[in-house]
Amino acid sequence: MSEQSLGVNVKLLKPFAIVKETLERIGIVNWEQKRIFPSCYIVEEGSGHKIYHFKELFEKEGKKSDFFDENNDKDKFRRNTIIYNLRNWELLEVDDNDISPILYDKVDVVKFGDKKNFRVCHKYLFKRDLNSQ
To answer: Where are the beta strands (DSSP E) in 58-113?
Structure first.
């Protein structure tokens, strides 16, 4: 898979830390166990930023994931929907062509004030600088 097809280029309208923290509250949420499984991450690349689904980050490291499998559109749609929401919340700018199509069912978001009651369970851990590849 080529690097160009990984992630979505975005232009930040708010500080990096705010966008990163917001992404930690969006994804798959287990409301009973109070756990958040973030779906996407923001990465600084060169002079810009990209948002990746966590499975794209595995691919970026050369690990296999099912992100690009023919029968797995849901992860791409979820990533695009999250970016669409971030744009609508005026946290970033993105070309609409880069985030089409989106999901029309809901994507879970934990409110900022409620995050303290949840455990964030990352499916991707940054172990090394992704820019060094």
So the answer is: 92-93, 108-109
Q: Does the 15-126 domain belong in CATH 3.20.20.60?
A: no
pLDDT tens, 36-54?
999 999 999 888 999 999 9
What are the pLDDT digits (tens) for 10-38? 999 999 999 999 999 999 999 999 999 99
Give residue-wise pLDDT tens across range 54-80. 999 999 888 889 988 888 888 999 999
Q: Among all chains, which residue has been given the structure tokens 């409301």? A: 31
Q: Would you call the peptide bond into 15 cis, given omega within 30 degrees of 0 as the criterion?
A: no
**Per-residue CA distances from 88 to 1, 5, 13, 64, 67 (Å):** 30, 23, 11, 32, 25
Question: Between vectors from CA 78 to CA 77 and to CA 82, what angle results, nearest 5°?
Answer: 115
Whether 29 and 110 have beta carbons less than 8 Å apart is answered as yes
Q: How far apart, in Å, are the Cα atoms of 126 and each of 8, 43, 98?
A: 18, 10, 24
Alpha-carbon separation of residue 3 from 9, 50, 74, 117 (angstroms): 12, 12, 21, 37
